[in-house]
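Schema walk-through. Below, the input block comes first and the output block second. Nothing else is stored per chain. Lengths vary across the set, and this one has 482 residues.
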Amino acid sequence: MTRKWVEMSHEKRGHIFPTFWYWESVQYVARIAGVELGLYGNYYKDHEMSYVGEETSMTRVGEEILRLFREEKLIEKVESCNKKEIPKLLQESKWFVENDLSQKSGEELFTHHDMVRAQFMKLMEYSAMATVMEFEVPLMSKYLESLLQDVVADRGKVGNYFNTLTSSTRQTASQREEMALRELRIRDLENNLTPEELQHHTEIYSHIAFGYDGPGWSIEEMEKRLRELSDDMSVLKKEIGEIKGAPHATLQKQQELIKELNLDTEKVYLFEVLSILGYWKFERKFANQKSHEMMENFFEEIMRRFHISKAQAKMILPAEMRNVLVHNKLDESVLNERIALSITLFDGFKEPKLLIGDEAKKIEKEIEMSLSVDQTITEFSGACAYPGEVQGRVVRVDEEEDMNKFRDGDILVSTSTSPKIIPAMKRAAAIVTDSGGITCHAAIVSRELQVPCVIGTKIATRLLKDDDEVKVDATNGSIKKI
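--- output ---
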């Protein structure tokens, strides 16, 4: 019997490290929820990767997590976990940048790799709950939207109200970076900015653009971002004030809306839960990326010792690290085969399997058959991340270099967005993505930019190509080819 697969996220660049860690952590989440997962895995091909799962593999777990948030105040544990475990993860990861790894034994390298991995799992077992809950089907988002539909007479306003009530009332890491960069720009215009200050800013914030596979922002990229800011000090000061005041402004809007809609205590609590989950998802995500960035030294040391590429080094399974580092056992041809095509499968709580060759091709065929899209489709839908209605030219933007073809007012279509393509997002008339829930990068940024956005379409990049003309009705989550 052929299985039906769904693609929950796709990355243009991704290897076993660290994406295997993320999918492994889902098992930890499921154990806390007390529900066994279905079949799911990582699909790697030619340096690209997808998170895939057999249809409904995560839905039952997500439903139980939603119940826990509704009935057992799970949000308190999520907050506590993030506050406690994020600093520990970063502290463990510092070992890889504070030491000369060439002087360390294989045993030492392996030990610290496993210490970081263990700390990553401690963080993720609660912190990743929101991701698992919303990954296959945005369960909490749909539930809260249905609550709003019961109390809002004008259905056209549901999207606006939902976005207001679920926006974060805390300043995010990306907002802190944007504010700090504008402060540097003011110093630059006053001729007081030193190279050391820009270097320091880059060191602090480069990880925001790192993603899974890097690199983060270089000092040249940071300087380019700096020069692209306004050369009018009054504009910069106004922007700083708006960024600084955004959390309070959002809180005020939420309080006014709660009063206007006469929302009861339970509804207010649940909207606050989704707002908090969105905040911590990004704080945790950027902390993870900081950890991954620090571990680049670890993989560069593996490259040096075994004379392999970084891509090859990142295709080593966690369970193989001891053999590689302590016993010097590594087969370069196997790593190459994994890069070309490999699939790691997680079946409930069993040990994951890595498939290559004919076994991987069999699963790949199932996945591709499941994800194939009828090219005659002219209208499809996703979830509203920020409302609005526009029409324009499609431009596919997944990587930084894709922005070269982007013009003001184009419709940005992406598998999933990242901080490196924010300049294009700022110029977009609308944003459409394959993956993501209401707490994803595209959703958060589109709200900050107030750009209409539809997320979680699953098929946008399979149906739309550059220069297609589309109408985006983000309020209703629909996209129509013209």
